[in-house]
Specification:
2 domains, Dihydrodipicolinate Reductase, domain 2, 351 residues, Rossmann fold, alpha/beta, binds NADP nicotinamide-adenine-dinucleotide phosphate, globular
Length: 351
């Protein structure tokens, strides 16, 4: 298979460098361009990252020698993975899509537009059909697909098998989110250490709205959202990487504890699909009362699986449990890459 050339927008940030690392040795894709702001443009990627690289001992050789470009749509690639700050992502991604590039974005800007797929391949790959309507509306030769907010991805993956087997009516979630989720340099160390910050701008709103689009049924008319009430409380905690979520859920149909755990363990919708970054299984149910923990479980299945534990009865809703995922990988870089693999496998990157 000929490798598809990939450009990374926002390649110098927390998520961008995780994408660069994941692309090293990728069987389908080849990193051909790295781009960021004018502050970084013109430098070799290895030099630009000298004091910022945090994805292992060294910047991969294939990336280190690339010159960092500005984010203008004249890059030598077919698809761009966008890890841009949301203050600039919207317009830049649109310019790339207009110029004919496929854009797989981590940014929030286009997620809730009715004809932009908000994808989790294990849950809603059929939402790719929205691309047709998007191209018709915009007249773009390219297109934009997005991945959800990092906490939303983990919660939706955990909820998907329950929604499928039993139906879901209500969800309450409290998150403990890692510092790497705030980007680089992120939260000031004097604010973060020995502390919990009970506010992350926009996060609760995203966790309450995005799951409805993701779990919705798609048709040529758009996505019909299910009736699920969601209440989220989001906190920043002094953990380096890995978001933890305490989730309570009310089901539409009665289910025993054994049946709920079975639903988690049997959820393997991409089995045999051949997408290189797809974890199999995507959900790992752990029996120990002490799991999941960020330090022990954030790298489960190369950071792509969501770890779940502590399922028990909830005296207000039906069940409660704890879910954990790697916010940089499953919540961002790996999610955008998995979406790109889905696009390639479905022929959306063919010329
Ligand atoms: P970050 O560390 O702050 O990186 C931001 C990137 O955007 C850098 O490469 C930066 O380039 C670039 N940039 C900033 N201003 C620019 C401009 N005017 N023109 C071109 N490039 C510009 O942020 P991050 O944590 O990697 O997040 C990236 C995106 O992913 C955000 O939209 C974020 O909301 C989303 N996201 C992050 C996570 C996470 O866990 N961190 C999870 C899910 C989604 P310079 O280095 O040159 O300034």
């Amino acid at each position: 298979m000929e490798k598809t050339k990939i450009g990374v927008l926002g390649a110098t940030g927390m998520v961008g460098q995780a994408i660069v690392q994941l692309l090293s040795g990728h069987p389908w894709f080849e990193l051909s361009e790295v781009a960021a702001s004018e502050r970084s443009a013109g430098q070799r990627y290895g030099e630009a990252m000298a004091s910022r690289w945090s994805m292992g001992p060294e910047v991969p050789d294939a990336a280190a020698g690339l010159t960092v470009k500005e984010c203008t749509p004249d890059l030598d690639c077919d698809l761009v993975l966008s890890a841009l700050d949301s203050s600039v992502a919207g317009g830049i991604e649109e310019r790339f899509a207009k110029a004919g590039y496929a854009v797989s974005s981590n940014a929030r800007n286009h997620r809730m537009e009715p004809d932009v797929p908000l994808l989790i391949p294990e849950i809603n790959s059929e939402h790719l059909q929205l691309i047709g309507a998007q191209r018709k509306r915009t007249g773009w030769k390219g297109f934009i697909v997005t991945d959800p907010n990092c906490s939303t991805i983990a919660m939706c993956l955990a909820l998907a098998p329950l929604a499928e087997r039993f139906g879901i009516e209500k969800v309450m979630v409290t998150t403990m989110q890692a510092l790497s989720g705030a980007g680089y340099p992120g939260v000031a160390s004097t604010d973060a250490l020995d502390n919990v910050i009970p506010f992350i701008s926009g996060e609760e709103e995203k966790m309450q709205s995005e799951p409805l689009k993701i779990l919705g049924k798609v048709s040529p008319a758009g996505v019909k959202e299910p009736r699920i009430e969601i209440s989220a409380q989001c906190n920043r905690v002094p953990v380096r990487n890995g978001h933890t979520e305490c989730i309570s859920v009310k089901l539409s149909k009665a289910a025993s504890e054994k049946e709920v755990i079975k639903a988690f363990r049997e959820f393997r919708p991409l089995k045999g699909n051949g997408l290189p970054s797809a974890p199999d299984p995507p959900l790992v149910y752990l029996d120990s009362d002490l799991r999941p923990q960020p330090r022990l479980d954030a790298w489960s299945y190369r950071g792509m699986a969501v770890s779940i534990g502590r399922l028990r009865r909830c005296s207000v809703l039906d069940y409660k449990f704890v879910a954990l995922s790697n916010n940089l990988i499953r919540g961002a870089a790996g999610a955008a890459l998995l979406n790109a693999e889905l696009l390639k496998s479905r022929g959306y990157l063919d010329h």
